[in-house]
Amino acid sequence: MTVASLLLALAWGGLAPASATDDGAERAGGTGAVGDSSESREAKPRRWKAPNGPFFNDPHRKAGRFAIEREVIRTIRHTPRRATIRIAVYSFDRMPVADALLDAHRRGVRVQMLLNDHQDTRAMQLIRAQIGTNRNKKSFIYKCKAGCRSTQNEYNNLHSKFYSFTRAGRSEDVIAVGSANMMLNAALHQWNDLYFSSGDHTLFRQFVSLFNNMKKDYDTRRPPRHFCGTAAGATCDDSVDKHTAWALPKLSGPKNDLVIDMLDRVQCLTPDGAGGVTRTRLALSMHTMRGRRGDYLAEAIRNKYAEGCDFRVSYGLIGYHTKQILGATTARGRIPLRSTGMDYNTDDDFDLNHDGEDDLILDYYSHQKYFVIQGTYNGVPDTHMVLTGSSNWASLSTANDEIWLTVQGKSVARKYVANFDYQWDHQRNSRDAYTTTYASFREARMVRQPDGTMRRTYVTTRRPVTTVERDHYRTGPYWEAD
């Protein structure tokens, strides 16, 4: 195994649209495309256009690694003088990104970064030496203490991952949201996604307002924010609005969880008008599910499968009790379940974060947190919607700074499903999460004798037996440094 490893975490696990004028939000725009070593580090002419839609990191193939990072770097390189780049991520160690940001700063771009406080990498140090930490300046890099809008304690974090550019090339108001931090580990070992959008000035200003609120670094939990650009109706509605966003923290439980609310709006079986039914297709790619929240969400997921949804679940890590609930048999059988967590050397765990305990090191795993709905949602047939962002479906996640973004659109949903299928269909990328063994059974059979009478005899047959077993990694509180 190549030791560019990770420490795996426990669980980061209709309101009126937010005001576009809160916290000094400003006009902005920009976006990016894949860069390479031959590309000039100077901003390109305005004919360049930002990327649009989702991009994915494939850790198993050289060509698929750094795919997201290249998009971010190109966007930075195309950001012109007097534009503003804002980045809020959990972790950051990529020197190529740091170099691109410093080049942008030298040519007059305002660079503002918010980070979690669990690490201090060389990339952070170099940027800090150039632009400082004063949040009242036009450029700064700052680490929030146990989250920016969360209660300061040992559990909470700034876990959001979003990037914004007021201009890049000829694109304005560029936003990128997803699961991707700018880490070497993220490129070499993780499945990640980052969704780019540009041109929605109102939505962009709402993200700027959120960023400006985050940089105040509150000691106590702030209220959640819900926004969607310009709502199609009186309030934001993910079944009709192109984009909707939630900014956590948001206290959650079985009766007030955003995931439960979303699943409750899914109709599994829809009459097709010809005497049959159409099944809603659901695909979940989740980094981790565990804890009490993981348990009740697993039950809700399994219930949707039992109702008739074609539901597939892929995970990177999962709590054993959560897995038992998710994999319990229904009248339709067990929900299809695979894992992207690949550990080819189970003896290489060591104390990466120097806390006195060995940590789990995996070769490959999903860090994604996306959910695709194709079918009837909130009474709307033929819905194609994607949920992505930074929030895991686990216990600690809803107390963190997190981003939850929904995107309507057939093209976007199909791209996410293609990524899901690519992981699901190849044994290199994922494994069956169930354990199948073969057991011998003694069965009675009636056999006709030569004289015509029937006689009971016994034969031994071997049949497959499917069980839900613990995954081959240690349980316990792992710190997520990715």
TrEMBL record:
**Which Gene3D superfamilies does UniProt cross-reference here?**
Endonuclease Chain A (3.30.870.10)
Recorded hits in Pfam families, A to Z, give: PLDc_2
Q: Which UniProt keywords apply?
A: Hydrolase, Lipid degradation, Lipid metabolism
The segment annotated Disordered runs over 21-60
Q: Name one GO biological process term.
A: lipid catabolic process
One GO MF annotation is:
RNA endonuclease activity producing 5'-phosphomonoesters, hydrolytic mechanism
Q: Which residues form the Phospholipase D-like domain?
A: 83-214
Protein name, please?
Phospholipase D-like domain-containing protein
